[in-house]
Amino acid sequence: MYSHILKSKRFILILLCCAILIFVGVKIFISKKEWMTQKSGFKRTSIHWPKDCDFTAHIPEERNKYPELICADALDQLRAQLPNDCQYNELALGEDGFMSYHLYADFLGYSPIQFFPLSEGKFLGELLCLSAPYNRYNVYFIYDENSIPAKTKILTFQTFDFEEKNGFVHKESFESQSIIRFFKPESKEFISFIKMRGMGDCGTYFRYGLSETEKPILKEVRVKLECDGLYSYSADDIPLQWTEISVEPSFWNRLLW
């Protein structure tokens, strides 16, 4: 009987020790997480690269006090996440094999990156991905420096490829992170105007908005596959005389026309 009581007490003691260890471990985990991710206190409403987002000489222990270093760290991490179809000239590549913002700027002769304010401490970043003779493709990402480390998220756009076969136009859906030509800050819209040739008389046009959860929303699609010299548009124009395609989800379940 006495032996049974001792075993019961020992079991209770073991359970109590385990509970204490678990509690302490959770506290350490939470404290570590809070230490790793903390509020920055930054309230910037504009960022200009490179002066506001670059590595400069600061004391390592005070890195978190400087928003330009937090931003530089985020951009440095972003390089490995860029889509593969961003083909950077070898003169723009750093020693690590990834694109170097400074070398890329030297190669282009101008800044390849800019920021548009979304809210206090949150921005939309634009990075040149590829510049062709009559098309231009940018990568867009959300940059949030309200916490340390800062957060970045590359935007993904649902889009479509159109092809004419046997008198019918077929579509193929795909996602792209580098289809956008430019961003309109006044309306917070993304424009993709892909010309099939330089005069702009054929190609595809997509217009996207940005939801409250910062996801691209397809708003408008226009297509002209026949390059006949008619209805030419510059990249800054809306090709109103091209065929407008419904953006209703049910429409995409069948052939277009």
UniProtKB/TrEMBL annotation:
Alphabetically sorted, this entry's keywords are: Membrane, Transmembrane, Transmembrane helix
Q: Does the record's keyword annotation contain Transmembrane helix?
A: yes
| Transmembrane regions | 12-30
Q: Which domain of life is it from?
A: Bacteria
Query: Could you tell me what this protein is called?
Result: DUF1176 domain-containing protein
State the species of origin: Leptospira interrogans serovar Pomona
